[in-house]
Amino acid sequence: MTTPAFQRVQTARHPDRPYSLDLFSEIFEDFIEIHGDRRYADDPAMVTGFATIGGREVAVIGQQKGRDINERRHRNFAMSKPEGYRKAIRVMRLAEKFGRPIVTIIDTPGAYPGIDAEERGQAEAIAFNLREMASLKVPIVVVVLGEGGSGGALAIGIGDRVLMMENAVYSVITPEGCAAILWKSADKAADAAEGLKLTADELKKFDIIDEIIPEPVSWTIGDDKDGKRGKAFEKIASTLKKSIVSALDSLSKKDTKTLLDERYKKFRKMGEWV
Questions:
Q1: CA-CA distances (angstroms) from residue 89 to 53, 58, 84, 98, 163?
Q2: pLDDT tens digits, the chain, 274 residues: what are they?
Q3: Which helix (H) or strand (E) element contains residue 175?
Q4: Cα(137)–Cα(255) distance, rounded to whole angstroms?
Q5: Which residues is 161 bridged to in the sheet?
Q6: Residue of 104, 109, 129, 256 with fewest CB within 10 Å of its CB?
Q7: Residue 106 in contact with residue 144, Cβ under 8 Å?
Q8: Residues 252-259: contacts with CB under 8 Å, at least 24 apart
Q9: CA 53, CA 55: separation in Å to the nearest integer?
Q10: DSSP annotation of 273
Q11: Contact 28, 240 (CB under 8 A)
Q12: Of 18, 11, 3, whose CA–CA distance to 232 is shortest?
């Protein structure tokens, strides 16, 4: 039986679901964090750095929500401001300079819409990342971990391979936001979720994503009674790691021209109606 789309949305938002930093410590090794955009400030909603996976050195970028209310406020609920996206592209350029592949992890309800973010060029920062990621001369693997919300997600989502967790969602707008526009009521969020086709299986049909990583609904960081990461987390993280390594191995065999041409065609054909 197919899980209703809005149930997937609620699962993707579950507070005990693994976040980017959980994966950084579980499937990557020797993670060293890099701070700041060298223009304004450091954005805790966007975590960046370098690490190794499968013996390969990579740049890693991930959006982090926060576990408790204090950390969520500190991380701004994973809603980055312009400095977050500028920090991300700074690290990606470093990766390109030194020939390191890039792995990004998407988990955000969207970019921060506050006045201060708009004053510092939120839309320009996102648009700049889209253009720059399309032309980076190193392999890029994208993982949609939880919520993939609008431009806030896409700003680190231009990749050669897009992997998506089975219970994650990826959409141009939240179901609540869509319902408020179409029906003037957030009560229609479940209907909007169905219409948005935001689940992994629907997105795979449209070739928006390349691979679905299977997971149980109960995949959380605290499956064990002692609060430690449970067997489900370890198993699914291991599956995800293998998929990332496999994608990197495949992409690393392509020459730069082929890599860029295929990346361009991948995104250029999205939305075509034949």
A1: 21, 14, 9, 14, 20
A2: 567 899 999 999 988 889 999 999 999 999 999 999 999 999 999 999 999 999 999 999 999 999 999 999 999 999 999 999 999 999 999 999 999 999 999 999 999 999 999 999 999 999 999 999 999 999 999 999 999 999 999 999 999 999 999 999 999 999 999 999 999 998 899 999 999 999 999 999 999 999 999 987 666 666 555 545 667 788 889 999 999 999 999 999 999 999 999 999 999 998 877 7
A3: helix 175-182
A4: 9
A5: 141
A6: 256
A7: yes
A8: 252/101, 252/139, 254/139, 256/137, 259/137, 259/139, 259/160
A9: 5
A10: -
A11: no
A12: 18
Q: Encoding tokens for residue 148?
A: 């993939």
Tokens matching residue 263: 């990346």
- Token pair 């809005």 in the structure block, residue: 6
Q: How many residues does the chain have?
A: 274
